[in-house]
Amino acid sequence: MHDALFQPISLGAIQAPNRILMAPLTRGRSDPGAVPSAIMAEYYRQRAGAGLIISEAVGISIEGSGWAAAPGVWNDAQTDGWKAVTEAVHGADGRIVMQLWHMGRLVHPDFLGGEPPVSASATIAPDFAHTPLGRKPFEMARAATLDDISRIVDDYGAAAERAKIAGFDGVQLHAANGYLVDQFLRSGTNLRDDDYGGSPENRTRFMREILERLIEVWGKDRVSVRLSPNGETQGCDDDNPPATFGAAAWVLEELGVSFLELRQPGPDGTFGCTDVPKQSDHIRKIYTGPVVLNSGLYRRAGLRRG
To answer: pTM of the predicted model, to two decimals?
Structure first.
């Protein structure tokens, strides 16, 4: 069907007029204090013709933000800035959800007053960070305590509440690309031996607790997730991706989240399949909601389920 991408679809409670979703794209255009700028409102307004806009990644806290000029949503000024964005998008008959982000070990101490970043375990990311003081190697993260985990879940809940105040149509949990939730999911960065480590099911516990909190705020039909089952990402890898991401998919199915966005790998990706469209089949067998495939796979939108 040649016009399939232009057919409407229900993404939970969001009625999208077409199946072309705007992917989350970090732009680094915020005003000082991680406050959304006027140019951001215009940028999103111009793209309101998409079936749904997924915002650029938005920091849930100072601790989780390590990208210069990326926006946040942990205070009133930021929330007010986002109101201008959602008003612009809705004024152009668009729909927009906020992607919630904690970078974990990918936050350089320069963003934290010299304090180490937090992660699933005491590990260090490869390569370099772009900091306010220049390009520097990443530094060792500290392992999150149980109190840290509880506090961070609360931070996600508070961010979700602010997203609602700001007028968004829902939220997406960024659980991909080697950031904090992904650091908990994958065996290469999660070396814990408590209830949050070890088995794939234990490693999904942090993600589950966050999603449960987001659902308390928004309802399951306005909460979505991004995963990246596509091999090593920013030093974050796993020794059994089908087991790990299969366990993650079961969490999403049990909680009934509105849709799943996958950062789809190429022919040599995670599950070793040479036919690109089949890369997500393992997850599709478990999660029965709408699946969105990213990374330029425009010819197969992955929204075959209503």
So the answer is: 0.92
